[in-house]
Design goal:
The protein has 508 residues and is of the alpha/beta class. The protein is built from 17 helices and eleven strands.
């Protein structure tokens, strides 16, 4: 059955903005919308595997409460009644949080993440928890202990990572919106290869409280959507200062919604980063990127080239800093307090139980990064590896400062290639890591960044993403550029791409 033939097609194909409007007016009920998306999950998720946990009963109960509030004339949030998928690295009371790892299998967190709480406080409906690379370590969602997620455009291919489950759920019309987290591109890279919108807010712009930490100086929750305005509204819901997060910025949230609606790039100065392109980039990716740059110029933007010379060191820098922080953060999974416990026969020492549990509970990629990080932090090597990486990180931040003194935003492809085949790179970690070439610099510097769909690569017919990077706390500029591209390309899933709506089995 294709999407057009599905009984719930008319409902699930609508934008989050349209759904919210119709729910508030009474044209649709939140329960009806939620049930339509739960039906869609039942129809296709056996093949896509975007969800690790579907919370249908609670979702319908939440939707019923929204309908009752609207009927009573009570105020509701801007996306009231709209269903959403939540990456399974953010806590949600009563729902398991596994982080895609066996070591947390069955753990029920006793508190909500701030992002989760803000979604609920704004009357949104959480459908369930989505799949991810284990503890968000990966670029393909193949590292999940619960099996890979598949790309709805071609189910033989990866949906990106680590947040492939959130992006695939949105692309397959299982949810109109999702929350991801971005440590080195884990929102933007999946958005690029699934043809969706993904935004990494300024570091500290959305709370990390209740986000199971991978790398505390890099992780950032953000929105996943099928249109720029939908992403902006979700960004507005989750963003803002949180006293529970010591890294949260106590500043007003940029007006991302107005920016998305204006979609005005006239007189903006847009810098093309020369280091993010050329050898190693697929021809179709570069073609669509160049066409999008030309389109922005035709809309009144001034295009310049900028050089960020230290970006070429971003990948090795990231893969020293991230493993070091990962080694520290994951030390708490010791079988003593929560989660998996293996080898406790009554005679084993705590150290033996800890070793057996970690051997059984952590996957190969997690073990690899823990070992690298522990080595980089060890006595005699700390300054040579971790210390040097932090110095290069400073140079990358200075590159951004210099570039933003010349341009309002910077742009590049979101990924060097389109979605590759499942299993193609699992035995070559370095090839896998290179998929994050374009996205990592923004995490190291902490500035805002997003990926927007700009069409399909001619050689394989798969989505291409266009990355926009803005200075810290200038997140609204991302939405101005993304909105302009979307309006001009009609790529908000209701223009020329309508004939290529992802539907499992329908495209290949």
């Amino acid at each position: 059955m294709t999407l057009a033939e599905a009984p719930n097609a008319e409902t699930i194909r609508q934008t989050a903005v349209d759904l919210a409007t119709k729910i508030k007016s009474g044209e649709l009920s939140a329960v009806e919308v939620t049930r339509s998306h739960l039906d869609r999950i039942a129809e296709v998720d056996g093949e896509i595997h975007a969800f690790l946990y579907v919370d249908g009963e609670r979702a319908l109960a939440s939707a019923a409460r929204v309908d009752a509030k609207i009927a009573a004339g009570e105020p509701v949030g801007p996306l009231a009644g709209v269903p959403l998928a939540l990456k399974d690295i953010l806590t949600y009371t009563g729902a398991p949080t596994t982080c895609g790892s066996k070591i947390l299998e069955g753990w029920l967190p006793p508190y909500d993440a701030t992002v989760t709480r803000r979604l609920l406080d704004h009357d949104m409906v959480i459908l369930g928890k989505t799949n991810l690379d284990e503890f968000a370590m990966g670029s393909s969602t193949e590292n999940s202990a619960y099996g890979p997620t598949r790309n709805p455009w071609d189910t033989s291919r990866i949906p990106g990572g680590s947040g492939g489950g959130s992006a695939a759920a949105v692309a397959a019309f299982e949810a109109p919106l999702a929350i991801g987290t971005d440590t080195g591109g884990s929102i933007r890279q999946p958005a690029a290869v699934t043809g969706t919108v993904g935004v990494k807010p300024t570091y500290g712009g959305s709370s990390r409280y209740g986000l199971v930490a991978l790398a505390s100086s890099l992780d950032q929750p953000g929105p996943c959507a099928r249109s720029v305005l939908d992403a902006a509204l979700l960004h507005q819901v989750i963003a803002g200062h949180d006293p529970c997060d010591s890294t949260s910025i106590d500043q007003p949230v940029p007006d991302v919604v107005t920016a998305a609606r204006s979609a005005d790039v006239s007189r903006m100065k847009i810098g093309v980063v020369t280091e993010l392109g050329g050898e190693g980039y697929a021809p179709g990716v570069e073609q669509r990127f160049n066409e999008a740059v030309e389109l922005l110029a035709s809309l009144g933007a001034e295009i310049i080239e900028v050089s960020c010379p230290h970006f070429v060191y971003a990948l090795p820098t990231y893969y020293l800093i991230l493993p070091a922080e990962c080694s520290s953060n994951l030390a708490k999974f010791d079988a003593m307090r929560f989660g998996l416990r293996v080898g406790d026969d009554g005679f084993a020492s705590a150290e033996q139980v800890m070793a057996a549990t970690r051997e059984a509970g952590f996957g190969a990629e997690v073990k690899r990064r823990i070992i690298i990080g522990t080595y980089a932090l060890s006595s005699g090597y700390y300054e040579a590896y971790y210390g040097q990486a932090q110095k290069v990180r400073t140079l990358i931040s200075r590159d951004f400062d210099q570039a933003f003194s010349q341009a309002d935003v910077l742009v590049s492809p979101s990924t060097p290639i389109t979605a590759f085949k499942i299993g193609e790179k699992v035995d070559d970690p370095l090839a896998m890591y290179r998929n994050d070439l374009c996205t990592i610099p923004s995490n190291l510097a902490g500035n805002a960044s997003a990926s927007f769909p700009v069409g399909l690569a001619p050689e394989d017919g798969l989505p291409v993403g266009f990355q926009v990077m803005a200075p810290p706390l200038a997140d609204d500029r991302l939405y101005r550029v993304g909105g302009a591209l979307e309006a001009a390309l009609h790529s908000a899933w209701n223009g020329p791409l309508l004939d290529r709506l992802p539907d499992p089995g329908a495209l290949r």
